[in-house]
Amino acid sequence: MAIVLGPNRYGKAETRVVRVVREGGTHHIKDINVSSALSGDMEAVHLTGDNANVLPTDTQKNTAYAFAKKYGVDEIEDFALLLARHFVDSQPAIHHARVEIEEYFWDRIPVAEGPDLGLRDEQHSFVRSGREVRTCVVHYDQDGGTSVVSGLKDLVVLNSTGSEFHGYIEDEYTTLKPTSDRILATEVSAQWRHRGDDSSSGRSGTGSFGRSYTEARQALLDAFADTHSLSLQQTLYEMGRRVLNARKEICEVRMAMPNKHHFLVDLEPFGMDNDNEVFFAADRPYGLIEGSVLTDDAPDAGYAWN
Ligand SMILES: O=c1[nH]c(=O)c2[nH]c(=O)[nH]c2[nH]1
């Protein structure tokens, strides 16, 4: 029996880069978390400790900082592609790069109205936005394969009506009561796969990764709000369908949506009725609904989901 090295990759995880751009007194910030993972001719380092083919993870981190200064950070997908191409194209021993970026949003702190104005300048004070995290994962391969997956996570949404759940299997362990009016709440994680390596490469794609992201996100929200839901599964499918209809450069959407259960509180002991007004928001356990929605002509996913 021989023992061999299996698949492997290495890199620097979670390099936090905050890039400030100054436009006179007005500052703009871009706050990202970069993880790179490289693979290639790495037998020697694993088998004998020969580091000749190893681009240190420390260097990968430094490259993220240096590129933020040199090129700035606009759309995270573009920045991830820049890094991935650099690692592979500059190092013959490195054949494949995976770069994952999360982006956190900040809002300006507005100057309050009132008599003591003038001390604070709203152009450089920020509060972390309650918004979701924007994500991307790109792969760049020496053999020419490039894939881009964009997405978001921690997008919390709730419909206070317009959701039913009934008609399900009832066996000897079922206690759930059917409902024709419940709260539907979830925290959306969605990743969508681009057909090509830029957001305008689709059949009728128009514009940048930024526009693609904004419209895909809006499609998710519109579908969640517009769908009269008979199950979270149905809502998930509709959300994916809307994204694919809105953005032709996207060929697959994968979603994970926890069902954040809201249970009606029994107020009878207190002599009160509860006509869908007071709920207990349970945090666990939760139903976890996951699924992929794709076009029937979606190209092979290749490395995209790795
Ligand atoms: O939308 C739902 N889908 C389910 O599969 C399920 N199961 C459950 O107990 N509640 C719900 N709700």
UniProtKB/TrEMBL annotation:
Urate binds at residues 57-58, 165, 182, 233, 259. GO terms for biological process: purine nucleobase metabolic process; urate catabolic process. GO terms for molecular function: urate oxidase activity. InterPro entries: Uricase. O2 binds at residues 57, 259. Pfam families: Uricase (PF01014). It is an enzyme of class 1 (oxidoreductase). Pathway: Purine metabolism; urate degradation; (S)-allantoin from urate: step 1/3. Gene3D superfamilies: Urate Oxidase. Its EC number is 1.7.3.3. The active site is at 12 (charge relay system), 57 (charge relay system), 261 (charge relay system). 5-hydroxyisourate binds at residues 57, 165, 182, 233, 259. Keywords: Oxidoreductase, Purine metabolism. It comes from the Bacteria. It catalyses: urate + O2 + H2O = 5-hydroxyisourate + H2O2. NCBIfam families: urate_oxi. Belongs to the uricase family. Catalyzes the oxidation of uric acid to 5-hydroxyisourate, which is further processed to form (S)-allantoin. This is Uricase. It comes from Actinomadura rudentiformis. The lineage of its organism: Bacteria, Bacillati, Actinomycetota, Actinomycetes, Streptosporangiales. The gene is pucL.
